[in-house]
């Protein structure tokens, strides 16, 4: 064969191969870009939304795999790929998993459930949930469940922490009369007698189904059907509590001071121990509001009241945020939060729950936090989708 002809043939094959490679590269880049765009739109915060999707090339097409609890995000992704004429196989698992057989809800069954970042006891304590908290169950791995709490936080709980339920069962539970435990800590008993066998410890904010009232006790039922008795003056009928509870400056200060000296616990959001945002979250919850879990989430809620250290603009109950300011090369980082209580003071969990001052002449002056102060936000009476008022959003009742 003529050498010139061979040269032309090899050149053509080379150009075709190069074009094919370029086309594949462009498709990979396009698909990667679509995944990034969808995740940024629907799941910018992986703590509260799950979109773990990736792809691989398989037999001339692209295999989409992973999982998400956002069917609308997956549908949007597929529509965008079709519009770009990208052939794909959809192997994305939509959560809740079908393996749950309809038991996609649960109730916390112990005083405080420790919720982990991964399905093992050695994993980081991400957050906590108190007795009677309704959760969504997304999937299971062995004896662990991936759940979502009312503040939408995603975490893992072991089987001892919750009782699995269907949507019908959780709706029935929500319709039943309940009590809320309002003491900081205490016990439930097997009989209407404090000398009887303890059934369990119990903490502030715990919710239990009410059977009957017996003199000085409420007879209650746990999610796993254990029967117990709660001292009446340590709890309230949930409906009465809800009707009379609202976050005011006075009530928030009073609640926060009941937690004075409580130990700092990374991941803690209960009266067994709190981190900084777990403390503010607990204070607000005990006054009828569910606010986001972390300081870096709480800072995005409410109304701005100050960002230039004009502390005379603050009102008790305002949240103060601390951290690293943004620079030309770094983003802002919120690392701490406290609550303003007036008189140039704020209360926060740092080592333990304590009161600090921004007044340099005060014995409890806190120069370190003053130097890293970022801004303050007002949660009281703020309209925000991330702030759940339990009267308007019936988390515990229908």
List key phrases describing it.
398 residues; alpha+beta; SH3 type barrels; five-stranded antiparallel beta sheet; 27 strands
Please characterize this protein's 3D structure:
25% of the residues lie in helices and 36% in strands. With 398 residues, the chain is an alpha+beta fold. It folds into 4 domains: 3-94, Histidine-containing Protein, Chain: A (2-Layer Sandwich), CATH 3.30.1340.30; 99-173, SH3 type barrels, CATH 2.30.30; 176-244, SH3 Domains (SH3 type barrels, Roll), CATH 2.30.30; 249-389, Alpha-Beta Complex (endopeptidase fold (from Nostoc punctiforme)). Helix 1 (3-42) packs antiparallel against helix 2 (71-83). It starts with a helix and ends in a 9-residue tail after the last strand.
What's a concise summary of this model?
By secondary structure, the protein is an alpha+beta fold. The protein has eight helices and 27 strands. The strands form eight sheets. A six-stranded antiparallel β-sheet has the order 21-26-22-23-24-25.
Question: What layout of secondary structure does this protein have?
Answer:
Elements (H helix, E strand, L loop, with lengths): L2 H40 L8 E8 L2 E8 L2 H13 L4 E7 L10 E4 L3 E5 L8 E6 L3 E8 L2 E5 L5 E5 L3 E4 L1 H9 L2 E4 L3 E5 L8 E6 L3 E8 L2 E5 L5 E5 L3 E3 H7 L4 H10 L10 E2 L2 E2 L1 H10 L3 E2 L4 H4 L4 E4 L12 E6 L8 E10 L2 E6 L1 E6 L9 H5 L1 E6 L9 E2 L9
Anisotropy-based shape: globular
For the termini, the CA-CA separation is 84 Å
Biggest β-sheet description: 6 strands, antiparallel
How much is the radius of gyration in Å? 27 Å
In the sheet with the most strands, the strands line up as 21-26-22-23-24-25
Number of strands: 27
Which ranges are low-confidence, i.e. pLDDT below 50, for 5 or more consecutive residues?
A: 8-22
CATH architecture assignment of the largest domain: Alpha-Beta Complex
**Considering DSSP H and I runs of 4 or more, what fraction of the residues is helical?**
10-25%
Under CATH, the topology of the largest domain is which?
endopeptidase fold (from Nostoc punctiforme)
